[in-house]
Design a protein that fits this description.
Keywords: Hydrolase, Protease, Repeat, Serine protease, Signal. Helices cover 21% and strands 32% of the residues. It is built from nine helices and 21 strands. About 5% of the residues have low confidence. The chain has three domains: 88 residues, Beta Barrel (Thrombin, subunit H), CATH 2.40.10; 103 residues, Thrombin, subunit H (Beta Barrel); 94 residues, PDZ domain (Pdz3 Domain, Roll), CATH 2.30.42.10.
């Protein structure tokens, strides 16, 4: 028995030694364990109720970029001459070497959006204002001279037109469904480097009282907008036009993450009016108004701080003819409440001239309703 045990022990020792040597020298000779194969199937996103977030906005950019154009403008600017050059004595000795009457050529750049296959392009008024020549460069390399169809300085919108065929266009988005936090893309030609796409979110809606335009209802975004982006497109993740980039808040001239775009609803209204009528006709009340602060509301014994306090009235204007007086507080227009003076201005501008509209005012501690015949807003001189 002891002999058998000795043989078994020696055999086992030799076997282990052989296995150890093979595992070091030729491990592939050793048999491998066969594991059970398990097939894992992932449920479709629709079935699980979870939709994967997109990791690229290529489709939106690819759809929108062809319809965004670069705009190059040029105009002649007459240089200012020194007052002494008007003196015959100095002219006798120096002539016109320090400033003649020859105009100097200046150029600038911006962006625009093709909104019709008939060649209509929407841009900012300040991009093409007073331009003698306007050249449009498309993303496909084509260029064309453009002419101004009309402009609206109060909203800083202008419409120009080119004569080319096979033009790509952008569709207008439903801005009413937009919310703070939605992803947007800004497309333009910043600093003249070429067409560029930047991404951000909607930071705020309905921004006003910024002192940029007469009528303000801006979309605020942190998508980078720089000089040259003016007039370019702000689009959603479907590539539809959300707004026209128009201004930035900056202390250095570059983007600080605070940009403003004119919403597509305003762009569409102004564009249609310019194309059809050559300009925009707005309602006018003929008053000077200011916001109702909590202090003013308390002094007038008003229940809440809202409305527009009438500080002045244009003589023989619509408000004057309706019997409105300084000190009245305008609370409602045609059944719509007035939030502040900016809201009042926008509501009045949207009314058709020569129509009679009921307006709710607060006077001497009580509410009254007056009928006002809306006038036509006069264009400011120099615009």
């Amino acid at each position: 028995m002891k002999k058998l045990w000795l043989i078994f022990a020696q055999t086992a020792t030799i076997g282990l030694a052989v296995w150890f040597v093979i595992s070091l020298v030729a491990p592939q000779w050793l048999p491998r364990p066969v594991a059970d194969v398990v097939t894992v199937r992932q449920a479709p996103a629709e079935a699980s109720g979870v939709v994967a977030a997109p990791n690229s906005y290529h489709d939106a950019a690819h759809r929108a970029m062809p319809a965004v154009v670069n705009i190059y403008t040029a105009k002649d600017v007459k240089p200012r001459s020194h007052p002494l050059m008007n003196d015959p004595f100095f002219k006798r000795f120096f002539g016109d070497r320090f400033g003649g009457d020859d105009a100097q050529r200046t150029s600038s750049l911006g962006s625009g959006v093709i909104v019709s296959d008939r060649g209509y392009i929407v841009t900012n008024n300040h991009v093409v204002e007073s331009a003698d020549e306007i050249e449009v460069a498309l993303a496909d390399g084509r260029t064309a001279e453009a002419k101004i169809i009309g402009s609206d300085p109060d909203t800083d919108i202008a419409v120009i037109k080119i004569d080319l065929d096979r033009l790509p266009t952008l569709t207008f988005a439903d801005v009413q469904r937009m919310q703070v936090g939605d992803v947007v893309l800004a497309i333009g030609n910043p600093f003249g480097v070429g067409q560029t796409v930047t991404m951000g979110i909607v930071s705020a809606l309905g921004r006003s009282q910024l002192g940029i335009n007469t009528f303000e209802n801006f979309i605020q975004t942190d998508a980078a907008i720089n000089p040259g982006n003016s007039g370019g497109a702000l689009v959603d993740t479907r590539g539809s036009l959300v707004g026209i980039n128009t201004a930035i808040y900056s202390r250095s001239g570059g983007s600080l993450g605070i940009g403003f775009a004119i919403p597509a609803t305003t762009v569409r209204q102004v564009m249609d009016a310019i194309i059809q009528d050559g300009g925009v006709t707005r309602g006018w009340l003929g008053i000077e108004a200011q916001d109702v602060t909590p202090e003013l509301a308390a002094s007038f014994k008003l229940a809440e701080a809202r409305g527009a306090l009438i500080a002045g009235i244009v003589r023989a204007g619509p408000a004057d003819a309706a019997g409105m007086r300084p000190g009245d507080i305008l609370l409602g227009i045609n059944g719509h409440p007035v939030k502040d003076s900016s809201d009042m201005l926008n509501q009045i501008a949207g009314l058709r001239p020569d129509t009679e509209v009921p307006m709710e005012i607060f006077r001497a501690g009580k509410g009254e309703t007056v009928q006002v015949k809306i006038g036509k807003r006069p264009r400011l001189s120099g615009r």
